[in-house]
Write a structure and sequence with these properties.
heterodimer, A: mainly alpha, 9 helices, B: about 250 residues, five-stranded mixed sheet, four-stranded antiparallel sheet
């Protein structure tokens, strides 16, 4: 049974990764767009525990237009409905993905960078390869820039979105007051939530652009069917 | 640029789908379910201890306490009451209680008082810190005697916003919470008109729209359905805000 051609190569993307990828993509986009409506409700951002007027603000967000928001016509109540539903989908699916990826080895094997990959020379080399549109990793599944980007999103930005979101809920704060304090107060948590949301938006744009320049049909197909390792 | 058009088209389809989805009953029940999940998580993550909202020190108090929603009550009765320092203001306690009460400001002052410096969070996103003084709601409930079967406490208000009476409601868990007080003082002064004179609720684990101002009545009920729009509060009825405002 070892005849060539009969050997099935392993899937490029595991089912757990693909399921989470798409659930997460939909949740993050809905959360971001309903979040823009919530930002429109009070556009000023503050540091510390409190703030309500321009004098205390460090930033005033622009008014986001209807085409970018959920719902398209301003309704803070409906935007919060979406945020409240998809916050749970987003939070629990990330938790499940992390646990499964920890147990099936995806996390340690593919996402964690090796010590030698962290050398500035290696990162610089990979950066130059990216400029030449060569994204093939030297070894393993992802190159170091991918590991930094994916790791930064999965382990830093997405958890920060969840925890700063929790820190803003008065009911949650009563349960875990240390969480809100850790971020420097509720208004600081709100500011960090906003900054991380736009960092994620920047990641999403880069991510989609890089998919488009690296064989979008194959990339999309593989993230749906799983594809095969090459 | 075909691909971009497809992407833009897909986004537009999703957004307009979202607008339609939000009106369906399936989505409504999904939101109610999610709301209960959040409340369940909030209550269980405290692992059984009484979950207290953070309290601050005097130096944390905001220089001015923003007023939102109704900033005044535009009736002759309220003007007359304000002119006499609210000396004849009455707070009615009714519904599923052993005995109805009608409390004057003097009665409220005579109860054991709690002073707390807490943060007020508006649903819009801003926060302000103030010091509130007043009796715990539980003192008043104990005096009236809550009947079995009572599930909610409804707060009736003197103010009218956009043609409807303001009101709010909470469950008994929040009603008996130590930080749930009937405030008559803000920052050591009698409550200003802007902030709900002469009495307002402080329910510290929930957002601003729960903090009913210009309080005239406390009613114990077994269901919120027969009251006004049936959703348990002014903003809940009018705009569809979540009844559990701890999120």
């Amino acid at each position: 049974m070892t005849k060539l051609g009969k050997v099935k190569l392993p899937k490029r993307h595991l089912l757990s990764t693909r399921l989470w990828h798409w659930i997460n993509a939909v949740s993050v986009i809905i959360l971001f767009m309903s979040g823009l409506t919530i930002s429109n409700a009070h556009r000023r951002l503050y540091w510390g525990d409190w703030g309500f007027e321009t004098a205390q603000a460090w930033f005033v967000a622009p008014m986001f237009p209807g085409w970018a928001t959920i719902p398209t016509r301003y309704s803070l109540a409906i935007a919060r409905d979406y945020h409240i539903v998809f916050a749970l989908v987003f939070g629990f699916s990330l938790l499940a993905f992390m646990l499964i990826s920890l147990f099936n080895g995806h996390m340690t094997r593919d996402l964690f960078a090796r010590a030698r990959e962290w050398s500035p020379a290696h990162i610089w080399l990979d950066f130059k390869e990216h400029l030449k549109f060569n994204f093939e990793p030297v070894e393993g599944k992802y190159n170091i820039l991918q590991k930094i980007a994916y790791g930064g999103v999965v382990f830093v930005l997405l958890p920060l979105m969840i925890f700063t979101g929790m820190a803003m809920s008065p009911g949650q704060e009563a349960a875990w007051p240390w969480l809100t304090e850790m971020f420097g107060g509720r208004q600081s948590a709100r500011s960090i939530h906003f900054i991380c949301a736009f960092a994620l938006c920047a990641f999403l744009i880069m991510h989609v652009l890089l998919v488009l320049v690296s064989g979008p049909f194959r990339q999309m197909r593989d993230m749906i069917t799983g594809g095969r390792e090459q | 640029m075909k691909r971009r058009n497809v992407l833009v088209g897909a986004m537009a389809a999703m957004v307009s789908a979202c607008d339609k989805v939000s009106e369906t009953s399936v989505f409504r029940s999904l939101v109610d379910g999610a709301q209960n999940w959040h409340r369940g998580l909030h209550r269980s993550l405290g692992f059984g201890r009484i979950e207290m909202a953070p309290e601050y020190t005097k130096s944390d108090i905001s220089p001015f306490f923003r007023g939102n929603g109704s900033r005044d009550v535009d009736t002759d009765a309220y003007r007359a009451s304000e002119a006499e320092g609210f000396a004849n203001w009455q707070l009615a306690v009714t519904g599923l209680v052993d005995k109805d009460l009608s409390l004057s400001l003097a009665d409220i002052h005579a109860l054991p008082q709690r002073t707390q410096i807490t943060r007020h969070d508006c649903v819009e996103g801003w926060s302000a810190i103030g010091q509130w003084t007043g009796p715990q709601l539980s003192e008043v409930l104990d005096q009236a005697g809550v009947k079995d079967g009572a599930r909610y406490v409804v707060f009736h208000c003197a103010d009218t916003l956009g043609g409807s009476k303001y009101y709010e409601s909470i469950d008994l868990d929040d009603a008996y919470h130590p930080q749930t007080i009937i405030a008559h003082e803000l920052n050591g002064e009698p409550l200003p008109v802007l902030n709900g004179a002469p009495l307002r609720m402080r329910i510290e684990r929930q957002l601003g729209y729960k903090q009913a101002k210009y309080l005239t009545g406390i009613e114990l009920v077994d269901s919120l359905k027969p009251i006004a729009g049936g959703e348990g509060g002014y903003w809940e009825d009018r705009a569809g805000y979540q009844w559990y405002a701890g999120i």
